[in-house]
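Troubleshooting: if your tokenizer reports a length mismatch, compare your output against this known-good record of 149 residues.
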Amino acid sequence: MARDERTEPVAVCVDADVVIAGLFSRAGASHAILVLGEIGLLRIVLPAAAVEEARRNIEQKLPEALPAFDVFVSSPFVETFRPKPRHMTRARPFAHDKDVPIMAAAIGSGAGILVTHNTRHFEPGEGVRVVRPRTLITEARAWMARFGH
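Known-good structure output:
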């Protein structure tokens, strides 16, 4: 009899730079992260501040891509998270001032991983690891290799 093993998707908080890179290039780790979210292996948490930053950048540099961005943000595998003041306070020691809302969303949402290209703006803390997209994909390969074993 086959085992019915179900696991919850791994929660990852994704910074704006990863979203932009993932949406507009079909190659690379950022895109692979979004695909893993779409198929249910990752729970993609988008900080509200990252949504605003990405929208602002897309409006300025690639306005014709806004509809694709809006479809992504409203998809069922993406959770937009607006941190509360207590999350902001907890995040302050672990991020540059402008990036505190990003770390606060990771902390408040329970995401154990924050994925960003700007790792120098963050320090791990409050149960959140900070990794580059390539690192997450390397780890995801190891997780998937264990499926069925």
